[in-house]
Amino acid sequence: MIPFNKPPIIGTELSYMQEAMQSGKLCSDGHFTQRCEEWMEKHFQCPKVLLTPSCTASLEMAAILLDIKPGDEVIMPSFTFVSTANAFVLRGATIVFMDIRPDTMNMDETKIEAAITAKTCAIVPVHYAGVACEMGTIMALAKKHHLYVVEDAAQGVMSTYNGKALGTIGHIGCYSFHETKNYSCGGEGGSILINEPSFIERAEIVREKGTDRSQFFRGQVDKYTWRDIGSNYLMSDLQAAYLWAQLEQANKINQRRLALWKKYYQAA
């Protein structure tokens, strides 16, 4: 029997989780959360990364940041997980599904422009199995029609397009650290990559239940208050400790998965 998935375990996860437990701060934005976010910002050349409970949560945050509202149209591939659509449907958007290319299983970029209307607000490319969509074409269309691009890069951590990390090309990128992905935080988890600097301050507020609590902890305000809509889009530092062990060995995990893929491919 070949298992559907076997989450990678490096061996340092437990010691890091114990370290987090001894720190006295198990909730969000602790030492390991900061490590993970800074690692991704550096390695993926992203202005701001925030850990979230899941890629679903990241997509929901993206829909809020783009101010998606009833009547707006969002273009995405028909071949994707339900979360891609749900995040925007929750804001009242109408989803315009695109067919996919048989060679990549990604949205057919040649059919996007014909689907754009006066109501279109965003394009959501999904990098299926870590295979990059044609982001050059997609970004050019977005610029031409003044649209936002949200990359669903749930399966795209460590993958690139023309040398640029998936998730860092559109205005917002969304990663998954679910146990079925290449890198895990011990079950469920994700991150949102903010590539448009003007979204950074609001992203922190939306993630913190609509409050400026992050600014309070940095000493930028004397008390935190409710400022916007939002929800609890925070990952616990205990999960971040597990994820940190994985990120430390990200290249090693990637190389092993590539080696296993080659074995399957050669035996096919």
Helix share, percent: 25-40%
CATH class: Alpha Beta
Catalogue the unreliable spans.
none
Tell me the structural class: alpha/beta
Assign the CATH superfamily: Type I PLP-dependent aspartate aminotransferase-like (Major domain)
CATH topology: Aspartate Aminotransferase, domain 2
Q: What count of helical segments does DSSP give?
A: 10
Report strand %: 5-15%
Shape by Cα distribution: globular
| Number of separate strands | 9
User: What is the mean pLDDT?
Assistant: 96
Assembly category: single chain
How is the main sheet built?
7 strands, mixed
Order of helices and strands: HHEHEHEHEHEEEEEHHHH
What's the CATH architecture?
A: 3-Layer(aba) Sandwich
What's the structural domain tally? Answer: 1
Distance linking N and C termini = 17 Å
Main sheet strand line-up: 1-9-8-5-4-2-3
Rounded to the nearest angstrom, the radius of gyration is: 19 Å
Summarize this structure as a short list of keywords or feature phrases.
268 residues, alpha/beta, Aspartate Aminotransferase, domain 2, two-stranded antiparallel ribbon
